[in-house]
Structure formats: structure tokens, C-alpha cells
Design a protein that fits this description.
Blueprint lengths: L7 H15 L17 E5 L7 E2 L14 E7 L5 H12 L5 E4 L1 H6 L1 H9 L3 E4 L12 H20 L10 E2 L8 H9 L3 E3 L3 E2 L8 H15 L2 E6 L3 H16 L3 E7 L7
Parallel strand pairs: 1-10, 2-7, 3-4, 3-9, 3-10, 4-5, 6-7, 8-9
Length: 263
């Protein structure tokens, strides 16, 4: 295992590959006119240099255009709040990426299957949500692998050495160099975020919406992080989707390149 060092040129090539892969695009079809929908899919291919994106943690982000946004949710599936988020997304024909915790998936396997069947991308967020900088490498590695293995067994009936959807987000964005190297070796993309709602703090849905919209308008495009485990977030999502549509925002849905249906 070779520890990754900063490689801006290699990262640039990875991002160019992602952009080229995304160029054809494919908008989601929706039977209801007037909904937000999905502007295009962006297939993500992970090369030998790995892929680390999201400017809250890394120098680069995804090659998104102005007013393009990627919706991501962490920490579920969580029962009632996740169901409310899924219903809001379905009502607007929007697909998101859910970075799920293995133990939550094991507690709600049918909900995880419904999430995947609805067309959302299922990424990984470890098994038990530990802060990786505070535990030994082997324990962190085992927790990450247990998380994606649990999800893959629920969705596909088996688990391999690499996750079926090679997308990962560190709990608390707490990365370590050895775990980064492991994820590079396993060709797993690591996602940070470009803006978040800070929805881990108590909030009203109205205050949360105002905060989220102010942050995304200030940046102009990027990866949004929310949590489908919070009631105030779930209550805010319908208004968020309407505000995005009213503001001319376009949703980009991330998919793993090697699992696209048209390849």
C-alpha cells in the first residue's frame, strides 16, 4: 500500500475523466411536468490516482457548471425521517446520493432496498460512524469494509473486496493518510462537500432553508451535504427543492461509471 501524496496533475486528469464521462448526460424522465427533476447524470470513474472531491476538505471538486448542484444525505437510513426525504425527492423527480451507515442499513434493510429501487445512488459512510482520526488504522479499515459489505449484501446478496458502488464519505470528514491510501488502492472515490446546512445543530426548517440557500447561492455550484436522520431537515427538503427550481438550479445525479445501465 502506497500512501497518497498531493498530486494535482493526477487529480486534474481524474476530474477531466469524470467530466468527459459526464458529457453525454442523461436526464431523468418524470411523468409530472413542472417538477425540478434531474438535469443530467454524472458517471464517476475512479482511476489509479483515486478521486478526492469537495472543497471543504480537498483542493478540487466535481466539474459542475454554474447553478448545478449535487444533493447528498448522510447517516441513514433512519426510518421516518428518511421516508420523508425520499417522498420529497420522489415528488420532484429528483435523485440524490445517500452515504449510508452500515448498522443503520442493517436496521432498515427494506428501506435501503426502496431507496436503491427508487434510483438513488447508495454510497458508504462506514459501519458504525467512528471518527477515523481517533482509532487505529486496522479498526478504521475494518469498519469501512464492514459498512460497504453490509450494504452490498442487503442490496445484492453478496459482498466483494470492493464496494459495488465505490463512493465513500468519511464520518466527520476525518480522513487519515493510511485510509486514504487504502481507498485509492480499492479505487473508491472519496467525497467531501462544497457546502452544508450545518443541520446537525438544532434548527427550524425555515432557518435551515435560509442558511442552505444563502450558502449555495454564495458559491454558485457544488456538492450539498445534509442528513436524512434529522426531523428538521426532512421537513425542510420539500421547500428546498421548490427553492432550487425557482432559483434556476439544476440537479446533477452521481452514478458509478461501471454500473451505468447503458454501458
Amino acid at each position: 500500500m502506497t500512501l497518497p501524496s498531493p498530486r494535482p496533475l493526477a487529480l486534474a486528469f481524474a476530474l477531466i475523466a469524470a467530466a468527459l464521462g459526464a458529457a453525454p448526460g442523461r436526464a431523468a424522465t418524470c411523468p409530472r411536468p413542472g417538477t425540478l427533476g434531474v438535469e443530467r447524470e454524472m458517471p464517476i470513474a475512479v482511476g489509479p490516482a483515486g478521486l478526492f472531491v469537495g472543497t471543504k476538505s480537498y483542493p478540487e471538486t466535481l466539474p459542475l457548471g454554474d447553478h448545478e448542484i449535487v444533493l447528498t444525505f448522510d447517516d441513514g437510513p433512519a426510518g421516518k425521517t428518511t421516508d420523508a426525504v425520499l417522498a420529497a425527492l420522489q415528488a420532484e423527480c429528483v435523485h440524490a446520493t445517500f452515504f449510508v451507515v452500515g448498522r443503520m442499513a442493517a436496521a432498515h434493510p427494506d428501506q435501503l432496498r426502496r431507496m436503491a429501487a427508487a434510483g438513488h445512488t447508495i454510497g458508504h459512510h462506514s459501519m458504525t460512524h467512528p471518527i477515523m482520526t481517533g482509532i487505529p488504522f486496522e479498526r478504521g479499515r475494518a469498519d469501512i469494509v464492514a459498512g460497504w459489505s453490509t450494504v452490498d449484501r442487503i442490496l445484492g446478496g453478496h459482498a466483494g473486496g470492493r464496494p459495488a458502488t465505490p463512493f465513500f464519505r468519511y464520518p466527520g470528514f476525518a480522513a487519515t493518510a493510511p485510509l486514504d491510501a487504502m481507498l485509492v488502492d480499492d479505487r473508491v472515490a472519496v467525497f467531501g462537500a462544497d457546502f452544508w446546512g450545518s443541520d446537525w445543530n438544532p434548527s427550524t426548517p425555515e432557518a435551515l432553508l435560509a442558511r442552505v440557500m444563502a450558502r449555495i447561492e454564495a458559491r454558485g455550484s457544488g456538492i450539498l451535504l445534509l442528513h436524512d436522520t434529522h426531523a428538521h431537515t426532512a421537513a425542510m427538503v420539500p421547500a428546498l427543492l421548490k427553492a432550487l427550481k425557482a432559483g434556476g438550479w439544476r440537479v446533477v445525479h452521481l452514478v458509478p461509471a461501471e454500473r451505468r445501465a447503458d454501458q
